[in-house]
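#help-structures

NK: newbie question. if I give both the sequence and a SMILES, will the prediction place the ligand too? trying with flavin mononucleotide
OV: yes, paste both and it writes out the complex. here, I ran yours:
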Amino acid sequence: MPVITNIDDLKALYRRRTPKMFYDYCESGSWTEQTFRENSSDFDDIYLRQRVAVDMSNRSTATQMIGQDVAMPVALAPVGLTGMQHADGEIKAARAAEAFGVPFTLSTMSINSIEDVAAATTKPFWFQLYTMKDQGFVSSLIQRAKDANCSALVITLDLQVLGQRHKDIKNGLSAPPKPTLANMINLATKWRWGMGMMKASRREFGNIVGHVEGVSDAADLGAWTAEQFDPTLDWNKVAKIKEEWGGKVILKGIIDPEDAKMALEVGADAIVVSNHGGRQLDGALSSIRALPGIMDAVGDATEVHLDSGIRSGQDVLKAVAMGAKGTYIGRAFVYGLGAMGQEGVTRALDVIHREMDVSMALCGRRRIDEVDRDILLVPEGFEGRWQ
Ligand SMILES: Cc1cc2nc3c(=O)[nH]c(=O)nc-3n(C[C@H](O)[C@H](O)[C@H](O)COP(=O)(O)O)c2cc1C
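OV: that's the protein plus ligand as C-alpha cells.
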C-alpha cells in the first residue's frame, strides 16, 4: 500500500483502480479546459504570510456553515455518478463525511438514492437539485428530500445546458458501462472495482430509475436526462422552488457579482461561487478570482461559499481568508473514494484538515474566525480590471 501524504497520492491510486471512462469523466473540464486548469493554478498566485512567535496552542478548525456545526469549513460537493467511481460510492462518502463532521451533498444524478443515503446515515445531509422540465418530477424530488430530513437544498444554477467534455463523448460514458471491446479490455485490469460493483446495491441513477414514468432502464435514461435539464430556468422559478422547499437554500454556480445580487433578492441562505469545477463555461473566471468581486457585491448579506479547484488545505485557507464562510471539494474526495472507498474519503478529508490546521498556525492564527485577508499576500490586479 503506497504511503498517502497528499491529495495527488490519492489521485494516482484512483487512476490505477478505476475504469478509464469514470476517471476521465471526473478529471476533465469543458472544451479547452482553461477554466478547469485555472481554478487550481489561480490559487498559486496568492501567497500566505508566515508569522512567528505567536502562541499556536489550542487550535480549532471548527466553524459553522448555514448555521450548522462543521469540523472544518469544507463540505463534500454534489458529484453525479459517484456510485460508479466506487461501489455504493454515495453511501460511503456520506458516511465518511458524517464521521468527520462535515456536510455531504447528494447529487440529483447520484447512483445511490436519497432514501439509500438516508438509511445509511444518522445525521441530515444536503440534497442538490437539478431543475428539470418535468415539474412533477422536481416536486417529487423535493418531497423525497424533505421526507429524508435533508437539512439544505442546494439548487444548481449553472447547468441548464451541458458544457461539452470531449472525453465523455469519445469514451461513450454510461452507467453502467456498455460492454464494448474497449470497455471490456479496460475493465479487465480493474478487478477490484469490478468485484465491488458486483456487490453494489445499485448501478443506475437511483433518484430517477423507478421514479419517472417511461424510464425503466439505462437505455431510456440516457435519452431522458439529455433532454431533461430545464433551459427555461429563471429567477422566478428559483424563488418558487425555494418556497416549495421551505427550508435552507444554497444557490450554487454563481460566478458574477450581478447574479450574486439576484441570489440575495430571492433570499438565498448561502451562495456557492462555483463554475462547476470548470465543466460548464470554458473561459469563465476561476472561482477564487471571482470571489473578491462577489464579496464586494453581497457583503455580509448572505453566506458566501466557494468551490472549484481546491486540492489542499492551503487552498481552503486562502478561500476563507478571502471571505468564504465555507468551501466544497469535488474531485479531491472522488480521488479518495476511487482509491480506497470510504477510507479514502476519510484520508482526503484528513489530508486537507491537517494542511489547513498547520498552515493556519504558521500564519499565526488559531481559529477560523481569526482567519482574514491579513494572512494573505494577493498580487495587485488579481481580481482583474475588465473593460
Ligand atoms: C465528476 C463530477 C460530477 C459532478 N456532478 C455534479 C452534479 O451532479 N451536480 C452539481 O451541482 N455539481 C456537480 N459537479 C460539480 C461539483 O459539485 C463541484 O462544483 C466541483 O467538482 C468543484 O470543483 P473541484 O472538483 O475542482 O473541487 C460535478 C463535478 C465533477 C468533477
